[in-house]
Amino acid sequence: MGWRVSRGRLEAFSDGVIAVVITIMVLNLRPPPGHALTDLRPLGPKLAVYLLSFVFIAIYWNNHHHLLHAVERVSGAVLWANAHLLFWLSLTPAAAAWMGPHLGDTAPAAVYGVVLLGSGIAYAILTRALLAAQPPGSPLESAVGRDRKGNLSVVVYVVAIALSPVAPWFSLAVYFAVAAVWLVPDRRIERVLPAPSTPETEVTAASREPR
User: What is the structure's pLDDT at 145?
Assistant: First the structure.
């Protein structure tokens, strides 16, 4: 039962940190001083960056949730790898707050990309740490495979960061494109998770128990 408690605490702590990250991001959106709808126009870029950042955080939360539900063991290396991921995700509000009013500028676009790149690499490290903690032939191993989608995202981030000095708008478009790709549900882990029990299956199982 020890690993179950550790996994539950790990997920609860991660959920709490991610909730705080989203809260900080929305607090960075200041209402306009005026009272007309046209006063909202300057908030457009900030809202776009907030939406992009929210989507990325939501994607990581969803994948993190599925990842932990496919494991049987949690090791010390997993705890540190998870903290590493949370470190990069916690930088998202600061990077978003800088890029929001500076769309099209090189440095904010590059820094935002570095945070996305760090988060992607940290998630890959967490996945490998979890795989190392599981027994051979685990459901997680068969579900993750080579993770082409994750590896390709990291490569795309590197390209976008490298091009930000000459084409920051292109880098921003790449970030939106990666988010759109990851919005498509990834069914790899769901396929290996056991089906949730229902009252009907519980009654059937109980009726088969010897008396």
Answer: 66
CB atoms within 10 A of CB 196: 6
Degrees (nearest 5) of the Cα angle 67, 70, 72?
Answer: 120
- pLDDT of res. 195: 57
For the whole model, what pTM was predicted? 0.83
Paired tokens of 46? 């900030």
User: With the C-alpha atoms ordered 59, 26, 23, 87, is the resulting torsion angle positive or negative?
Assistant: positive
Below-70 pLDDT ranges, the chain: 1-5, 143, 145, 185-211
